[in-house]
Amino acid sequence: MTSRRVDPARLGVLAGVALALALLLPASTMAGSGSDAALWERFKERFVTSQGRVVDTENAMISHSEGQGYAMLLAVHFNDQAAFAALHRFTREALAVRPDDRLHAWSWSPASEAVSDANAAADGDLLIAWALLRAAERFGEPALAREAEALIDAITTHLVREQAGLRLLVPGPEGFVHDGVLTLNPSYWITPAFSALGRADPAGGWEALAADAHALITRAIDARTKRLPDWFALDADGAIAQSGVFDARSAFDAVRIPLYLIWGCERAHPALEAHRRALPAPEGYALDVDLDSGQTTMAGEHAGYRAIDRLTRGLDPRPARPATDYYPAVLELLALVAHEEEQTQCP
User: Fold this and answer.
1) Which residues face 64 on adjacent strands?
2) With left for phi above 0 and alpha for psi between -120 and 50, is residue 22 left, alpha or beta?
3) Could you give the residue numbers annotated as active site?
4) Partners of 183 in the beta sheet?
5) Which of 7, 34, 72, 160 is the most buried (most CB within 10 A)?
6) Might you name a Gene Ontology BP term for this protein (predicted)?
7) What b/e string do you get for 271-299 counting C-beta neighbours within 10 Å, with b at 16 or more?
């Protein structure tokens, strides 16, 4: 499992030549407006194979637990039971291969047709569990709820730690604790999922996880750039520092934090104002910022950043033209869902 990086030459470039050779999921009857349904259909056509594999077109065409979880959530939102079934099947058969903890392997490679990174990623497992809970209710399948409950138990057992009086979700079961220092990724703290999993697991400490995540996100805002970091370190005394494992940067991971805060009815969180102030750049958006120097290392247009920018400003995030690569396309759809659910579910 690595931090997400995007080749700048690929921004805005058509992708998916290999996908054109694959059989794709069929269209289906869905909830939502016709334009929203069309966005989901386009996403499936470009990024989901008939086997239910979500293809990351900017990352060697691999599939990963994050992408599977996102697409499973979207399938439920759009009432697309056939797509959900295919996505769930691939996720279970290709990624649920860790016998000791029941978490999902992070990535699967089409080159080897096998798992390419067996470490689990906390956000992927959160998303999958959340999608299973939603699917169980929407499609009337109690077995999905039982599967979700088993995964929730695995998450709380293997991915939750106490440090300096805080209850924290660590990024994965291996490689993120060194000499008592935790390496943390705040974009993995999907607080609306915490709430949903907490309703299914009332004794799991999910309220504390959410409260401590919100507090740490505020503390982690970079004082100079006002940007949210992709990664940071937390020592045994609760002090925050730059990660010693990953570069000190604010980029394609951190952009998701405002999305999740709004989705979780936290529009007043200080991170949203920081995000709005730090995002613009003369060339479009500040896509990647070096937190050591304060310099923007990549700037330009990006459909996913645009959708989240509009979401944070209270504007409709629907795109005029859908994105052509996996990550911006999925951010567009997630921003749309967060926008709709904020309007209908947040006080």
Assistant:
1) 107
2) beta
3) 66, 123
4) 233
5) 72
6) cellulose catabolic process
7) bbebbeebbeeeeebbbbbbbeeeebebb
Here the tokens at position 253 are 């991971």
Transcribe 65-104 into DSSP letters: HHHHHHHHHHHHHTT-HHHHHHHHHHIIIII---TTT-PP
List the one residue out of 139, 105, 108 whose CA is nearest residue 125. 105
| DSSP secondary structure of 235-304 | -TTS-EEE-SSS-SEESTTTTHHHHHHHHTT-TT-HHHHHHHHHSEETTEEEEEEETTT--EEEEE--HH
Give the H/E segment covering residue 232.
strand 232-234
In sign, the C-alpha dihedral spanning 233, 239, 240, 244 is: negative
- Taking the C-alpha atoms of residue 318 and residue 97, their distance in angstroms, rounded to an integer, is 37
Taking CB atoms within 8 Å and a gap of at least 24, the contacts of 272-277 are: 272/312, 274/221, 274/226, 274/227, 274/228, 275/227, 275/228, 275/312, 276/309, 276/312, 276/313, 277/226
Identify whether the C-beta of residue 320 lies closer than 8 Å to the C-beta of residue 336. no
Domain extents for the chain?
A: 23-158
Task: Return the H-helix or E-strand segment holding 177.
Answer: strand 177-178
Neighbouring C-beta atoms of residue 150, cutoff 10 Å: 12
Residue 104 tokens, joined: 């999902």
Q: What is the pLDDT of residues 134-190, one digit of tens each?
A: 999 999 999 999 999 999 999 999 999 999 999 999 999 999 999 999 999 999 999
pLDDT digits (tens, 9 = 90+) for 84-133: 999 999 999 999 999 999 999 999 999 999 999 999 999 999 999 999 99
Identify whether the C-beta of residue 148 lies closer than 8 Å to the C-beta of residue 200: yes
Is the CB of residue 36 less than 8 Å from the CB of residue 307? no
Type of residue numbered 149: E
Structure tokens belonging to residue 346: 């947040």
CATH 3.30.70.100 assigned to domain 23-158? The reply is no
Q: Which residue has the tokens 């029941």?
A: 102
Mark out the alpha helices in 140-253 (DSSP H runs).
142-158, 191-200, 206-220
